[in-house]
TrEMBL record:
This is HypD. Pfam families: HypD. One of its GO terms (molecular function) is 4 iron, 4 sulfur cluster binding. Belongs to the HypD family. Keywords: Iron, Metal-binding. It comes from Microcystis aeruginosa PCC 7806SL. GO terms for biological process: protein maturation. It comes from the Bacteria.
Length: 370
């Protein structure tokens, strides 16, 4: 298939749904339970609701929404640290637009900017580097976040800054990695998953090989998926087919974009600039071993965490917010006590309602209030 409309063909979708119904019924009769499949990526969650996929699936399948939204998994303490950095003398803090409205303990970045802090939205880390070139009397900090999808651009920006001798640019890294998070989910006894629809954008960078640990150690099938309706339906069918045949393998539905070995140039840049942290806090999932990335010692002169002494405190979520349970897949957004009432996109209490990839934002936008 060549054109996007072909990936939205209702006739082909109908055929896939029939096959999904047949497979899921057979699996349900064998196992006497609902099949639970997690779509890891927030982009998949939004596609599922945009195209009404969940509504047309049989009741024998339950889609669980995963933690694949980088803004959503950023804990309050790290956001407070970012605001602390913005409040330091002669500092310009830069970050992506989604991050601006994430609530911290007392303020969001947008509210901090309204109070006078120099906080600017950028579209890429190179935009932040450009600001540093234009403001040599200021320390320009890029608040970096995202999975492996966005890490290469950050790494290449650091390499460019080093090459050009830029000394007033630094990075506050909140980059996270996907495989340790999946392992943490599978180690959670409260969440019983049967398989995964794997993230497409992350896999474009890392490839499919890193997921082998999920199949080999946890015996769960993973199908890396694209984002169009037929992509997602085919991926669900592929997961079910593995379960029906009692297989646990890594399959690549999104092979028009994702290569098994990943993007070697991007991976090389990541490896050159970053290394895994021993531990990193995720909202809802807590401390995850090797769950985040930090700059290597060779690039410590660009590390905001070494240039500044941060509060670095763990801060509990708002007592009414249940983003943590939603990110773990334990609750659906509409089960949160404040969903759609006290917590809306205009006045978010939790991160899942802020981000364009958040599950709560998807439910709210597409009218899934129950």
């Amino acid at each position: 298939m060549k054109y996007v409309d072909e990936f939205r063909d209702p006739v082909k979708a109908s055929g896939l749904i029939q096959q999904i119904e047949q497979l899921s019924t057979r699996i349900s009769e064998k196992r006497q339970k609902v099949t639970k499949i997690m779509e890891v990526c927030g982009g998949h969650t939004h596609s599922i609701f945009r195209y009404g996929i969940e509504a047309i699936l049989p009741e024998t399948i339950e889609l669980i929404h995963g933690p694949g939204c980088p803004v959503c998994v950023m804990p309050r303490g790290r956001l407070d640290d970012a605001i602390f950095l913005a409040q330091q003398p002669n500092v310009i803090l830069t970050t992506f637009g989604d991050t601006m409205r994430v609530p911290g303990s007392h303020l969001s970045l947008l509210q901090a900017r309204a109070k006078g802090d120099d906080i600017r939205m950028v579209y890429s880390p190179r935009d932040a580097l450009k600001i540093a070139r234009e403001n040599l009397d200021k320390e320009v900090i890029f608040l970096a976040l995202g999975f492996e999808t966005t890490v290469p651009s950050t790494a290449l920006t650091i390499l460019e800054a080093q090459r050009d001798g830029i000394t007033n640019f630094s990075l506050f890294s909140n980059h996270v990695v996907i495989i340790p998070a999946l392992k943490a989910l599978l180690d959670n006894p409260d969440l019983q998953l049967d398989g995964f629809v794997g993230p497409g954008h992350v896999s474009m960078v890392i490839g499919t090989e890193p997921y082998q640990v999920i199949a080999q150690e946890y015996h769960k099938p993973v199908v890396v998926s694209g984002f169009e309706p037929l992509d997602i339906l085919q991926s669900i069918w592929m997961v079910l087919k593995q379960l029906d045949e009692q297989r646990c393998e890594i399959e690549n539905q999104y092979d028009r974009v994702v290569q098994n070995q990943g993007n070697r140039v991007a991976l090389s840049a990541i490896k050159q600039v970053f290394e895994l942290r021993d531990q990193f806090e995720w909202r809802g999932l807590g401390e995850i071993a090797q769950g985040g990335l930090k700059l290597r010692d060779e690039y410590s002169n660009f590390d905001a965490e070494k240039k500044f002494i941060l509060p670095n405190q763990r801060v509990k979520d708002h007592k009414a917010c249940q983003c943590g349970e939603i990110l773990k897949g334990v609750l659906k957004p509409w089960e949160c006590k404040v969903f759609g009432t006290a917590c809306t996109p205009e006045h978010p209490i939790g991160t899942c309602m802020v981000s364009s990839e958040g599950a709560c934002a998807a439910y709210y936008k597409y009218g899934r209030h129950r």
